[in-house]
Structures are given as structure tokens and as C-alpha cells.
Amino acid sequence: MKSDRTAKWLTSRRSTIIVGAVGAYISILSIFAFRNLPYLSDGTFYIAEWPFACFAVVVVLLLVNLYLVSKKRTRPRKILAILSALAVVSVLINAIAFAFGGDGTTSDRSHAAQVASPSRPIPAGPLFMAGAARGEITPSDYLMPMPLLYILKFRWVNDPVYARVLAMSDGTQQYLFITLDMTLVPEAEETLQFIHQQTGIPIRNIFISATHTHGTTPISLIDYTNPADRRKSRKWYEEIKRTLVSTIAKARSNMVPARYGYGEGQSLINVNRDIVVGKKSELGSNFDRPSDKTIRMVRIEDLNGKVISLIVNYAVHSVVMNGSLSGIGTPITGDIAGRTSAKIEGQWGDAVVLWTMAAAGDQNPRFMTQYTGPIKDGEPVRRMLGSAGSAILEYLSDEHVRDILKANAGFEATQTAPEIHTAEATALVDTIDAGKKQPYKLRLLTLGDIAFQGISAEVVTSIGKAVRETSPFQHTILVTAANGYEGYVADDWEYDHQAFEVGDTRVKKGAVQPEFVKGFTGLFGDLTPRVSQVMTSSTSRSR
């Protein structure tokens, strides 16, 4: 009988209960819509997006609850009235804060490499010129927490992330070399077209890559179903585009006569991540498998010797802080790539350090927050060090910085010839689906006797080596995750051992490398007359 009375009571008051619950949720969401309380801070985002609508909703809730209290003063109604009153105050305060730029979207978070004008006269004729700038692209406060996977979100910032731009000119055209502290170049086609429209620089003259940090929302990789997550991703992308426009403008306005040089060094911070467990490959640390330890660098400086920018290329995933979890949150971070660049920039002042990822498809950091423990019951045990991730990142990036600075001290920037050329192609690779091809973007940018190869994928060590060997240039740098992203490119060994890099790829075993080799061989072939001139002049200079 008691259960029947309870059911009848619930039925008669169902509407009141639902309205009360919704009102309580909206009120609590509004009350805690402050940036320092991340677990309910989606409310901040809604208020920033629709301040008048949110204010109207909570005012209506307040009026409804006050009316109900005037009819019958029950404790639940009093509590709801108090909550809705606090919600009105909270929304009002947040709306005022955002109206005065409190969301950070109007601030200028960039700096440019300020270089002195050369003291010597500028020679007549074609001249190599360069300028650089850096702009912060960390999501604005009101967008936090940023989406990652389901309820796991980026809830705080370990270190800021940046867009870095190097602008160059050969006297007839301008060129852009851009890096983003992101997992991939977001909406690559749209981004390239946007930069072209804003700058007038041809798309083929724009070389853009991501450092592939796993510490940011992977825009365009994950199709978020949550409306707030989807809208936040798009809002952040719009912020990135605005920052790109201002940063590119600063880099271009900062161009001065410059010189450049190439150097190499060694860094031992990476390790092949494909361990063998039985007949299968698992993620771990395999010191016996191939691993390229070479740091490849291009330094650009003004004619007085002040560094404008340093391009760094190295084969490692920026995943040191993978597994650095606190509850259902993880931090935004540029990881090993971003921290390394920022630390060198901090030492050098205005110089901009553009870190690029080489053939790192099978390369992880030597130390990580998430690591593979002993084998148990035929399977590796995964372990995480949680909050220790930040300390590990500082340690490993300090080591990487020392390696880079040591290598940087070992070469000079002496070349001034304005020899810049670009070319592009698409490699169409056979898949296991009859008649279907997987496209990969191939990009070539040459500067004097230096060639930059760009591939829109994560390439493993052996394939990266084969691709670099197609180059007739004296120095060749392979940049992956460039001008787009098409996932991993695995070699035959990884197919045979069902490695992580193979995943759910539809590409046929052994089909990618020949197409990449053919594609770049063709691109270099198209530049043959110019390559011969560059090689000849480079040889004569070296003598």
C-alpha cells in the first residue's frame, strides 16, 4: 500500500519534479560557471556564447520559483528560489566579465623576432629575406574544459601552445613555413585556403605542419557528438585562424636580409616503441629496433648574426604527458616539441624555434608518464605516473634543449642565395577495398642546398629513410604531419607483427613506400634544371 501511495504521489507531481530538477541543474551550472571550477565550467561557455539568453532563462526560473514560494512555502521551493537567485547573480557577473574581454579572445598573445637592420649596405638584385613570429593558440579560458575523449577533457593548462611562422622571400615570391603545437593541422584544406585568401601567398608556397602533441583537442580528427564539444572545437579553430593571420602579418613585416645554414646533431630522447610479445608487437621501449637519433636543423639569422629562427627536425612523438591524469582531466601541453621550442626561445629572446616531427611513426620518448611494465600472462602491463608527467616533461625537454644547443654551436649560417622552390603532388596508394585509393599529400620546399619533404601522415623510420634517399640535395629534412593528416604509414615488419601503427588501416601491406618514392622522385625530377644550378653553386661555394 505504501508503494502504491508513493507511486501515485510521484505521478501527480511528475511535472513539478522534472521542472524542479531542470531548474536546479541550470541554476547550479550557472552558479559554478567560473573558470576555476572546471567540472561544471561548460556553464561558462554557454554564458559567454549566449549571455542574454542565459540571463533570461535564470530570471524566468527565479520568477517561477518566487511565485511558487508565494503560493506555498515549502523547503524545496525555498531552496530552488535561492539557487535561481544565485544563478542570476552568477550569470550577470560572468556576462559583464566577458563583455569587457574577460574570455581572452581579444588579447594579442604573439611576439615577433625583432631583428636589427643590417649595418652593411643591402646589395642590389635578388635577395633572401626572412622574418619570424610566434602567436599563442592556447584555448581561451571560457572554452575550458576542452574535449578529448568522452568525459575525459583537457581541464587545465600545463604550458601554453603556439603557432610559429617563418616568412621568407627570394625577391620575387613569398613563402611561409608554419608549425602548430597541435595534434594535426586542423581542417587542413580550409586552413591552407584561408591563409592564401588572407595573405595572397599561393598555397604551394605554404608549408604547414603540426608538432603532433597529444596535449590538445584533435580538431578534425574526432567528430564530437556533444554539441558543446563540437562548438568549442570550432570556436577554438576560429581563434587559431585569427592568431595565424596576426602572426603571419608580424613575420612578414619583420622580414630583413638574411642568411641561412644547415647543421646536425644527436639526441637520445627517443626510442622505438614496437616491442615483441610472442609473435605480436605491443607498445613499449625496444632499443634494438631502428631509431633515428639525428637532429636536423636550419638556422636563419640577419646579416649581423642575430638569430631570426631555428627549424628543428627530430623523430619523436610528443606524448611525454600521455597518462598524466587527475580524475577525469588531463592538461593542455605542447609536450616535448612545445616545451623544447619555448625553452630555447626563452634563452634567445626574440628568436622563433619551429620544431618539426620527422619519421616518428614508431618512435616514442625514452621516458613517458604512461609506460609499459613487465609482461604478465603474455600481455604487457600498462602503468601511469599521473601528476609526475610535468616533471618528466621538464627533465626530458631540458635534455633535448642541451642537445639542440650543442648542435647549433657546431655550424654557421653563411648562405645568402635566394634559391627557393616548391612543388607538390598526391600519392595514390592501393587499399584492401577494390578500386579505392588512399591519397597522401607530398610537398617539397627547397632552400639553397636544403630540401624539405612534407608528408601528410605519420611515417615510420624505415619508410622515412627511403623517402629521404630520393633527394639529390646535399641536405634533406623530412617533415611529417605536414599539410594534412592521413594517419600512420607502417612498414612490412609492422604489418607482419600486427603493430599499433597498422591499426585499422585499409592500405595494403607494402603499397605505400613505392608510391612515396615515386612521388618524390618525380617532384625532384621536375626541379632538375634548378637543382643542377643549386648543386653547382653550392659546390663552388664550399670550395
Keywords for this structure?
nine-stranded mixed beta sheet, 543 residues, four-stranded mixed beta sheet, globular, 23 strands, 13 helices, alpha+beta
Describe this protein's structure.
- The chain has 543 residues and is an alpha+beta fold.
- It folds into two domains: 13-99; 126-542, no CATH class.
- 37% of the residues lie in helices and 27% in strands.
- It has 13 helices and 23 strands.
- The protein has helices at 2-12, 14-31, 42-49, 51-71, 75-99, 188-199, 227-253, 335-348, 389-408, 461-468, 492-496, 512-526, 528-542; strands at residues 110-112, 129-136, 146-149, 152-157, 162-169, 174-180, 206-210, 256-266, 270-277, 280-286, 294-302, 307-314, 329-332, 352-357, 363-365, 370-376, 379-384, 420-430, 437-447, 450-455, 458-459, 475-480, 488-489.
- Strands 1, 2, 5, 6, 7, 8, 11, 12 and 14 form a nine-stranded mixed beta sheet that branches. Strands 18-19-20-22 form a four-stranded mixed beta sheet, with helices on one face.
- A hairpin with a 2-residue loop joins strand 19 and strand 20.
- Helix 3 (42-49) crosses helix 4.
- The relative contact order is 0.11.
Element layout with pairings:
Blueprint: H1 2-12, H2 14-31, H3 42-49, H4 51-71, H5 75-99, E1 110-112, E2 129-136, E3 146-149, E4 152-157, E5 162-169, E6 174-180, H6 188-199, E7 206-210, H7 227-253, E8 256-266, E9 270-277, E10 280-286, E11 294-302, E12 307-314, E13 329-332, H8 335-348, E14 352-357, E15 363-365, E16 370-376, E17 379-384, H9 389-408, E18 420-430, E19 437-447, E20 450-455, E21 458-459, H10 461-468, E22 475-480, E23 488-489, H11 492-496, H12 512-526, H13 528-542
Parallel strand pairs: 4-13, 6-7, 12-14, 20-22, 21-23
Antiparallel strand pairs: 1-2, 2-5, 2-8, 3-4, 5-6, 8-11, 9-10, 9-15, 11-12, 16-17, 18-19, 19-20
Helix pairs in contact: 2-5, 3-4, 4-5, 6-7, 8-9
